[in-house]
Amino acid sequence: MPLGTSTSKPVRDQKARTKPNAKAQDAIKLLMADHATVEDLFKKFEKAKNDEDAGKDAIVKKICDELSVHAQIEEEIFYPATREVLEDEDEEMVDEAEVEHAGIKSLVEQLKEMAPDDELYDAKVKVLSEYVKHHVKEEETEYFPEVKKTEIDLEALGGRDGRRFRALCSRHSARASRHR
């Protein structure tokens, strides 16, 4: 088998997180890759929005799953670790991010209980997209640059993120299999 190929099926597109022996990546790069994945999913939803057979439900389910895992990684690992190293005045960014997560999680839970033909389904996906875009913009232009100025070991943190990500994906896959 050629070097760099694998017979195992990756859990998702982010190869660095799915390779069991991959070198740890910078936590911010991993989180930004998640941001890009979700942004692409929202674009797919927009293209599929007017086509009843385009799999809107599957796209929204994937968006919700991606956001749930991403939020859990940030809340369990990234936010607590960065809160410890940020200056007091920068901790407000962590507080805002946690509040933004609460709004995003609320919409995710609502969408999980809905069908694509339900009233307000498309509107809730649109608002979720706007919330996520706002959250991502603040993280990538304000929060992450401040974290980079600290002495935090982003690769070590990325290793923890990657391990937790794989654990969450495994748990999610097992749960999804039981409910089919």
Write up this protein.
By secondary structure, the chain is mainly alpha-helical. It is 73% helix and 0% strand. It has one domain: nmb1532 protein domain like (Four Helix Bundle (Hemerythrin (Met), subunit A)). It has helices spanning 15-18, 27-48, 56-85, 91-112, 121-148, 154-178. Helix 2 (27-48) crosses helix 6 (154-178), helix 3 (56-85) packs antiparallel against helix 6 and helix 4 packs antiparallel against helix 5 (121-148).
Low-confidence stretches: 1-21, 175-180
Estimate the strand proportion: under 5%
Tally of individual domains: 1
- Terminal CA distance reads 34 Å
Compact overview of the structure:
The chain has 180 residues and is an all-alpha fold. The protein contains 6 helices and no strands. It is 73% helix and 0% strand.
Task: Draw up the topology in text.
Blueprint lengths: L14 H4 L8 H22 L7 H30 L5 H22 L8 H28 L5 H25 L2
Helix pairs in contact: 2-3, 2-5, 2-6, 3-4, 3-6, 4-5
Protein traits:
6 helices; 180 residues; mainly alpha; disordered C terminus; Four Helix Bundle (Hemerythrin (Met), subunit A); 0% strand
